[in-house]
Amino acid sequence: MRPASPLRRILPPIVAVALFFLAWEVGCLVLGVDEFILPRPSVAVAAYFQWQAAIWPNALQTLFTTLVGLALAIVTGTLIGALIGYSALLYDALYPLLIAFNSIPKAALVPVFVIWFGIGTLPAILIAFLISFFPIAVNVATGIATVEPELRDVLRSLGASKFDLFIKVGFPRAMPYFFASLKVAVTLAFVGSVVAELGASNRGIGNMMVIASSRFDVPLVFAGLIVVALMGIALYAAFALLERRIVNWAYR
Questions:
Q1: Domain for residue 13, yes or no?
Q2: What is the top-level taxon of the source organism (predicted)?
Q3: What are the E-state strand segments in the chain?
């Protein structure tokens, strides 16, 4: 089967996004929705160009907190996921704790972090880290722990140790799971950063949205949301490209 051409891969999402925004624009016009309730895309774009000098410093701050939190989640999640996947004892001992900790609403931790660290960048980084850590740890652990028993038996019969199986089979086996979790974690990290910035930061898109809401400038709020969405798409695409380069062997 011939691989799909680049145009065939790119065109459908472009058309889908264009139709979505067209339906949004036309729907607001036909139904007479007030800009205070739901601004049209054209109005949000106009607000972006009007306030882009203020939007981008805040957007870069949100991008910074997201990337730092995501980097911490990648390092910590990969390490803990590898340990859990390597040892059945650690899997049984730590997995319930991970599930319980992930069940805690991260927004509820924002006031606690403000008390501990004050208002600023650090609470946003920590929320981005905590919200994106779990999928990475679970997917890495799953990839390592689900190596086929037959493959393990064959390699052990050839003299491979448990550590050899982990390094040469388990960890490469977990790479598709790892990159799949990255594409989920990057979107969650943006959510964590913006949620924390709503009440725990004096900079960032979340803080800008709070200020815009206090002035009832809803188009500016949506302009900020669109910028965050575009940054999320860009990072998702970067991880997808990296995945295709590194673990192309895992996909047919």
A1: no
A2: Bacteria
A3: none
Q: Shortest CA distance to 217 belongs to which of 32, 33, 36?
A: 36
Where residue 202 sits, what CATH number does that domain have? 1.10.3720.10
Contact 135, 181 (CB under 8 A): yes
What is the tens place of the pLDDT at every residue in 78-119? Answer: 898 888 877 778 777 887 888 888 888 888 888 888 888 888
How many separate domains does the chain show?
Answer: 1
Identify the sign of the CA torsion 198, 54, 222, 34.
positive
Query: What pLDDT digit, counting tens, does each position of 158-174 carry?
Result: 666 666 666 667 677 77
CB atoms within 10 A of CB 62: 27
Closest of 44, 70, 54, 80 to residue 183, by C-alpha: 70
pLDDT at 60: 93
80/175 Cα distance (integer angstroms)? 15
The C-alpha atoms of residue 172 and residue 175 are separated, in whole angstroms, by: 5
Residue where the block lists tokens 């900079």: 203
Whether residue 49 lies inside any domain: the answer is no
| Dihedral (CA of 39, 43, 45, 46) sign | negative
User: Which residue segment(s) compose the domain that 92 sits in?
Assistant: 55-250
